[in-house]
Specification:
7-stranded mixed sheet; binds 1,4-dihydronicotinamide adenine dinucleotide; alpha/beta; Glutamate dehydrogenase; 2 domains; binds 2-oxoglutaric acid; Rossmann fold; oxidoreductase; Glu/Leu/Phe/Val/Trp_DH_C; oxidoreductase activity
Length: 428
């Protein structure tokens, strides 16, 4: 949305895609929430939505406008918490859905936050570094009134990273008149970031992947893994699986799919992507001409770690993996969920599988408040314990109620949120 003549996305017909997925999942859960069901209606409504115009001066002197959002879905259990995404397909309905998933996720792993998410509808690859900085700072100033260490704490998501968080923290601090390191997490270590946060989401995916494999009697050593998305989440998860002796047989990113039956060299692939911007052209691998073939590849564990709605009715029947680990948020449509379930494929849902990131974000926030920083071993062992316990609790509930892991995770999350709401007296 860089042209000043383009129609803002919130004036176009609603894209219920991602948001609709969320609503359907909530609806499926309601029968299991018993007396809490009457409040689920309130879970469908975000608490606060801010849509902002983000104008910047381009390097050539022209002015470009971008549309930005921050949605606070729920704050019953604490301040809003969730990442910021820069992507050309970001829309209000997508950010609403992502914020709602954050509410469920934060409650499912029991970190003391509500749920929030933000984004800018922009392809950051079209911006220079200086333009990216101006856009990030302007966006932060525009949402300044609703964020803060005790209000709503942004973090990285797709196409945002430590540098973006540093600019956000600096802009917020300048507006406040004092340094407020706790306003964002996922910061550089030199600015109060936490050891282990960069790897935390991928590490959490790996930890719950090992737990799920154990339930299925699958050895990680020698297991065949396929990963879609080779950024922060997919890249780290792939590296940890490979280091544990698994064979990462396929990696797909926005530009290409690379395959190697005997296992890709993940360290070399990461170095290649750092240099070339994508996996396209990586030597020592076959490249698939048709990206859709990725879904039918022979593997044991499939890790979607890119965007929403990637596993859908067109490809769910082709999936050969026995375990799907949702590194991304919302990668599976409800229709595909049913297909995978009917085929006996074990799906570990996003709200558990990728919760390692926000868990270490919580550690970072705590460390910032106390100005006392933990060792990487302390962080990783606490993260591993929380992820294992969350997985075990959801697994036990799924067995008890005879429901999927997704439904069980939603029951755990919704119950905690709605109980907090009831105790506070905020129910309608
Ligand atoms: N960064 C974090 O801490 C967390 C991220 N997530 C979720 O994980 C997913 C990935 O996020 P990050 O790794 O942080 O983003 P990233 O920006 O670091 O990487 C995204 C990756 O997805 C690939 N990709 C983009 N479009 C694609 C397409 N159409 N097909 C295949 N690959 C495509 C990109 O090439 C890149 O490799 C998102 O759903 C995000 O919401 C979830 C929890 C925390
Ligand atoms: O670390 C955080 O605060 C949130 C990460 C995030 O956006 C997510 O879990 O989807």
């Amino acid at each position: 949305m860089s042209s000043k003549h383009a129609i803002p996305s919130y004036l176009t017909p609603p894209d219920i895609g991602a948001w609709g997925v969320y609503l359907e999942q909530i609806d499926r859960v309601t029968p299991y929430l018993g007396s809490l069901a009457r409040w689920v209606e309130t879970m469908k409504r975000p608490k606060r939505i801010l849509i902002v115009d983000v104008p910047i001066e381009r390097d050539d002197g022209t002015v470009a406008h971008f549309e930005g959002y921050r949605v606070q879905h729920n704050t019953s259990r604490g301040p809003g918490k969730g990442g910021v995404r820069f992507h050309q397909d970001v829309s209000l309905s997508e950010v609403m859905a992502l914020s709602a998933w954050m509410t469920i996720k934060n409650a499912a792993v029991n970190v003391p936050y509500g749920g929030a998410k933000g984004g800018i509808r922009v392809d950051p690859k079209t911006l220079s570094r200086a333009e990216l900085e101006r856009m990030t700072r302007r966006y932060t100033s525009e949402i300044n009134i609703i964020i803060g260490p005790n209000k709503d704490i942004p973090a990285p998501d797709v196409n945002t990273n430590e540098q973006i968080m540093a600019w956000m923290m600096d802009t917020y601090s300048m507006n406040q008149g004092s340094t407020a390191s706790g306003v964002v997490t996922g910061k550089p270590i030199s600015l109060g970031g936490s050891l282990g946060r960069h790897e935390a989401t991928g590490r959490g995916v790996f930890v719950v992947g090992c737990e799920a494999a154990g339930k299925r009697g699958l050895e990680i050593k020698g297991a065949r893994i396929a990963v879609q998305g080779f950024g922060n989440v997919g890249g780290v998860a792939a590296r940890l699986f490979a280091a544990a002796g698994a064979k990462v047989v396929a990696v797909q990113d926005h530009a290409a799919t690379v395959v190697r039956n005997s296992g890709l060299d993940i360290v070399a692939l990461q170095a290649y992507v750092t240099q070339h911007g994508s996996v396209a052209g990586f030597p020592d691998a076959e490249q698939l001409d048709d990206a859709a073939q990725f879904w039918g590849l022979d593997c044991d564990i499939l890790v979607p770690a890119a965007l929403e709605q990637q596993i859908n009715r067109d490809n769910a029947a082709q999936i050969k993996a026995s375990i799907v680990l949702e590194g991304a948020n919302g990668p599976t449509t409800p229709e595909a969920d049913d297909i995978l379930h009917d085929r006996g494929i074990l799906l570990v849902p996003d709200v558990i599988a990728n919760a390692g990131g926000v868990t270490v974000s919580y550690f970072e926030w705590v460390q910032d408040f106390s100005s006392f920083f933990w060792t990487e071993d302390e962080i990783n062992s606490r993260l591993t314990r929380i992820m294992r316990e969350a997985f075990a609790a959801v697994w036990a509930l799924a067995e008890e109620k005879k429901v999927s892991l997704r439904t069980a995770a939603f029951i755990v999350g919704c119950t905690r949120v709605l109980q907090a709401r009831e105790m506070r007296g905020l129910y309608p």
